[in-house]
Amino acid sequence: MTPFKWYRVTALAGKDARELLRNPGAIIPAVLMVFASLFPLFLVIFLVPMIMGKTLEQSGEFSEEAANAVGRIPELAGLSGNALVQTFLFHQFSLLVMLVPIVSATTLATHAVIGEKQSKALEPLLATPISTIELLAAKTLTPFLFALALTWAAAALEVAGAIALGEPGVWRSIVGPRLLILFGVLGPLVVLASLQVSVITSSRASDPRSAQQLTALLILPITAVFVAQLLGLVIVGPAALLLGALACLILNVVLAWIGVRVFQRESILTRWR
Amino acid sequence: MFDARVAVRDVSLSVNAGEIVTLLGPNGAGKTTTMRMLAGLILPTAGRISIDGIELTDATAARARGSVGLLTEAPGLWERLSVHINLLTYARLQGVGDPAASVSEALTHVDLLDRANEIAGKLSKGLKQRVAIARALLHKPRILLLDEPTAGLDPASARHVRDLILGLRSEGRAILVTTHNLGEAEELSDRIAVLKTDLLAFDTPAKLRNARAGGRVIIELEGGARREFDIAATGEIPAIVAKLVADGARIMRVTPDQRSLEDAYLDLVGAER
Q1: How big is the A-B interface in CB pairs under 8 Å?
Q2: Do B85 and B188 lie in a common domain?
């Protein structure tokens, strides 16, 4: 067993990053997805009230759900009227905003091993001293940083939208522990887990589509939570988010262990055509 | 063995420093599998491989991979990136002391220093192959494994690659080559191994041609008379000459009717069909 060397991880991840930067076909759709993820948020909070000529408070939409969430989302304390509903919706949509960049990054990760194989670059790569854990770490690192950049850009755009279009003080109620946990702790861990699943599947499947379909399974539960909280069925507070982050961290460790065990150099080289 | 299928069996050969050994065999004979085993990519299910004094095991495979230069059947370059970045990434993966200097040195070796900044995907097939050879030389391996180095190249590019291989031999490297080109095998090889799952023969090109001659020897006698004898091997010639001399013949010239390497190869491989 050779010792883990970061220089090998950064060498390969750096190569992947360079390839990504030279591939606008991969970057542009991902950036567009960020804007697409923000669209429902701005549609519901600003565009629809503007078209209808009534604020959310006046139309009564989401008022009850926002009032019910006051005790469970600390950032809502002290707010009332339209500001309360807007802040509530910003918090609820944050989960969706966090999810979308993950989808974009997993598309990259599913090509991680399969792409190298398809371009016949995998064999010379495996002929270097790189270990399996280094290879998997390298193949996860670039999509991870890319997803993180997209997620934080989405969060920044969300806050910028609140500053520009929201009721006075709404943005200050958005930037709180819940948003920081969501985008600073839970988000990166979910991103990592989904990328790990993608890379593992990529190392076992010979078709990127099957890898993407499996990764989609990981995103479904989070989507379900988003819909449930939008309907007022559940309110996910900071404590629940931290608990989710802890579960995700355990999942990350388990997935790293599985990844190393299921990656078989021999079958990748001899059975894939 | 792959599952129940035997890929290679009873192959025992060595390659010395400053020697080129060529593996010949039909498609599916186990040449690439042998190369991959020697490169530390796959482990044999039975038997022993020693690379530069290191016995190949699960624990030593990574170290062995670092001491061998492998040219894979397809160049497998990262086509969106420049030649320099392709090689720089590999130099870092190999952990060489000064990656940039190693890249320059390897490119100089294959006479491509002036093409360093070109995008790999835009190079001709012959140039890609030379870049792939440079990649195999980055960490200055004493052992080179070249899997079909001239396959699909035009005659001029193939000539260039063959000259390059001969130059590498003169530097004292041990080189194992696979090819389907018998003329190339004869030109390059100090010894040739004929493989078809089992090792069928392993000898110098001249001895291989003559060992299973199955041909003739033409003996010219004083006065212009000419005698022809069918022989099974060139080893029979001295006895024929001795008998003629004992019978009082005056021998002017003895000419073995030399068979080509192709005849010898087809005899070996065909007999096993």
Answers
A1: 87
A2: yes
